Amino acid sequence: MNKILVIDLGGTSAKCAVFADNKEMLLEFKVKTDITNILPNLKTAINEQLTTHQMLWSEIRAIGFALPGFLDDKTGVVTLASNLGWKDFPIRQEAQALFQKQIFIINDANAAALGEFWNNSDQTIHSLALYTLGTGIGGGLILNDQLWTGATGYAGEFGHGGNFQNQFPCSCGLKNCIEPLSSATGLTKLINRKAKTAPNSSLGKLVQHQRHPLGLGDIKPLLENNDQETIAVLEQGLEPLAQHIATLIYVINPALIILAGGVTNLGPELLAIITRLVHRATGEFLWKTFELKISALQDKAGMYGAAYYAFKNLNLL
């Protein structure tokens, strides 16, 4: 049995697992991210977990890292990962020296796309796009059964570029990205702005009742009860995302579009809103060519994808 250790590294914590090549997750654990000492801290914590579960380092063929931000998968350098404090950081070189294992690195959203592809049971699906809707927005593309990372690994940064909205500027320095409006951050701003400016609305009454700013989880009952005011606010925030998805459909015609991340905890009602908005922005002849779904793996997708990426690069699948 071939085993891969995977590390899905975030600014707060790292999700870690050991996978076998039959997709079985043999071990799973979390490590708190120590920004001042990231890799050594990971090594210490992983040592402890392997020892506890009587697993030897010699059993691990390689390590797959799923990483946030911009990275060059050819040189093994993280160009920019602000929440990790990394700029032009040679992650592959540093990790290989520390772990004494072959290291594979992949953007976390690309890893999630690969994870969904590996986990998908429909063998007729050969192309998909994944959107991660969290604090920010990322993405990944599978084309003809292959991950598409672009010339230097930057493909799939769906949250940035273009001219999709003009309400909120983006932290990347551009003004019209979809991320600041269609992300969890942007949607939360919109629902609280509505609650403040329209105190007699459903959202206004809810915030008065709760006596604290609303989170997305707070509005789920309103959505489930088909509250039209709440739906209208979400439509406003999700319109840029839907326009982006529609553009992507016309560009690459994916068979499957998967939505992941914290925003999707709003459930089938969210999916219905996005599907309706995407249909408005695409010709009816296209509707049967793609399916919109909420991720089945959710926050485990990055770990599955990092494992698959390592196995494939080692020619073990």
From TrEMBL:
Which Pfam families does this UniProt record tie to the protein?
Answer: ROK
Highest classification ranks of the organism: Bacteria, Bacillati, Mycoplasmatota, Mollicutes, Entomoplasmatales
Q: What is the official name of this protein in its record?
A: Glucokinase
Q: Which UniProt keywords apply?
A: Kinase, Transferase
Organism equals: Spiroplasma syrphidicola EA-1
Which family is annotated? Belongs to the ROK (NagC/XylR) family.
Please give one Gene Ontology molecular function term for this protein.
kinase activity
